Amino acid sequence: MSTAAPSPAVGVAAPAWERPAPAVVTGSGQAFPAGRSQQEYWDGFYGPRAGDNRWTRAVFLGAGCGRRHTAVDPTVEDISGWSTGERMARYLAEALPLAAAAAGDALDGAGLAAGDLGLLAVVSCTGYTTPGLDIRLAELLGADPSLQRLLIGHMGCYAALPGLGAVSDAVVARGRPALLVCVEVASLHVQPPSADMEQTVAHALFSDGAAAVVVEPGGGAGGPASGLEVIDVVARTDVATADHMRWDITDLGFRMGLSRRVPDVLARHVGPLVDDLLVRNGLGRGDVDGWAVHPGGPRILDVVEEQLGLGPGALDPSRRVLAEHGNCSSATVLVVLEELRRAAPLAPGEAVVALAFGPGLTLYGVLLKAV
After folding, report:
1. Looking at 170, 195, 217, which one is the last position of a domain?
2. Cβ 225 vs Cβ 110: under 8 Å
3. Of the candidates 200, 156, 166, which has an alpha carbon nearest to the alpha carbon of residue 330?
C-alpha cells in the first residue's frame, strides 16, 4: 500500500502509524443462510455416504465447527453429482441475496447510500457469472451507473485483505467512499462423500456467508468520527508449497485440496510477516490490542497463537466464529474482525492486526487503528 513508511536508510519521513490515516472502515455487515449443527450434517448426509468409520467421524466432528451455514443444504438436496455448469447456474441465485444483505447493513452502519460510493469491490472464489456479481449487486443496491467496480476472484480465504488494501488505496486516491463485499457459497461444491481425509476436512470446515465493509476517506476535519483506520498491508507467498492448498475446477464443481502440512508452512512465515508489518510502523507484538485471525481450522489457530506468543483468550473471537459459522472462505476474517469489536470495544489509538491465509501458499496481514 502507498501508506507504508520508507526505509530509515532512504528517508526520514514519520512511520505510517504516526501519519493521518488515509482510509477508515466505518460500517460492516454480515449475512448467512440457514444452518445446522455439525452433527446433523454428519448424520444426515456425510456419515452414511462416507462409510461412517471412526476416523472420518472423528475428523469431521473435531473440526472446531459446532454449526455451519449452507445455502444448499446437503441433508435436503444432494447436488454432489451435479455438473459444474449446473452449480454455476445456481451460484447467482444464492450469492446475490447474501451479498446484498451484507452490503445493505454495512451501508446503513456507515450512514451512506449506494449513490455515495465511488467504488464497489466484490470478492468471491466459489462461483462465476457474466455479467458479474458486481454488476448485479450494484443494480440491486440502486447504485449510480457511473459507479466503478472491481471483481476479485479465486484468491481464496485471504482475499478480503488484499481487497481491503485495494479499496483503501482507491479511497485515498479519489476521496470517495468504497464498499467491499465478500460472498462465498462453498456448499455448491460438495463432492461425492468418501473416506478421503482431504475431502472429509473440506466438507467439515467450509460454510457459506457474506461480509461487507464500507471504507471512507479519513484524516481530515470532515472525516468519519469513528471506525478502524487502515494503516498498512503486508503479504508473503511461498510458491514452493503452492500444491498444499488448491481449488481445482472439475466436472463436478470445485474440488478442495488441503494438505496436512499447511500449519507447518504457516509456522515458518507468520512470525516474520507480523514483525515486518509492526516494526515498519514503529510497533511490536506487545503493542497489538486485538488479533483478527482467519480460522482456517483449530490447528491453524493453535500455530498462530504459538508462533506469535499470544496470551490466553487472544484468539477467542476467531474460535467463536469457527464454532458458530465455520470457515466462510474470504468472508471469514471480516466476520472475525467484527466479532472482535463486539466482544471488547476498542479505545481510540488501539491497534488491531488482521491475518488470513490461502492458496499460494499465501499469508496477508493488515494493521488497523481504532479512532
Report:
1. 217
2. no
3. 156
Helix (H) or strand (E) holding 47: helix 47-50
pLDDT of residue 319: 97
Give the residue carrying C-alpha cell 450512514. 111
> 345: domain range?
226-370
Query: Of 166, 184, 217, which residue is a domain's last?
Result: 217
* Sign of the Cα pseudo-torsion (249, 253, 29, 64, in order): negative
**Catalytic residue list:** 157
Are residue 58 and residue 194 in the same domain, yes or no?
Answer: yes
Contact 294, 156 (CB under 8 A): no
Q: What DSSP string describes 139-174?
A: HHHT--TT-EEEEEES--TTTHHHHHHHHHHHHHHH
Residues 194, 199, 203: CA angle, nearest 5 degrees: 100
The answer to whether residues 126 and 329 touch, using CB atoms and an 8 Å cutoff, is yes
Helix (H, G, I), strand (E, B) or coil at 260: coil
Q: Torsion angle of alpha carbons 21, 22, 28, 31, nearest 10°?
A: -130
Residues 211 and 288 in one domain: no
Beta bridge partners of 215: 25, 178
Cell numbers linked to 332: 471469514
Is the link from the previous residue into 131 a cis peptide, with omega within 30 of 0?
A: yes
The closest of 231, 131, 117, 129 to 179, measured between CA atoms, is: 117
Q: Which CATH number goes with the domain that contains 247?
A: 3.40.47.10
Average pLDDT, the chain: 91
Q: Is residue 269 in some structural domain?
A: yes
pLDDT tens sequence across 148-206? 999 999 999 999 999 999 999 999 999 999 999 999 999 999 998 788 888 899 999 99
Q: Are 45 and 78 in contact (CB under 8 A)?
A: yes
Nearest Cα to Cα of residue 49 among 21, 78, 29, 88: 78
CA distance 254 to 61: 23
Single pTM value for the model: 0.92
Query: Stretch 27-40: mean pLDDT, rounded?
Result: 97
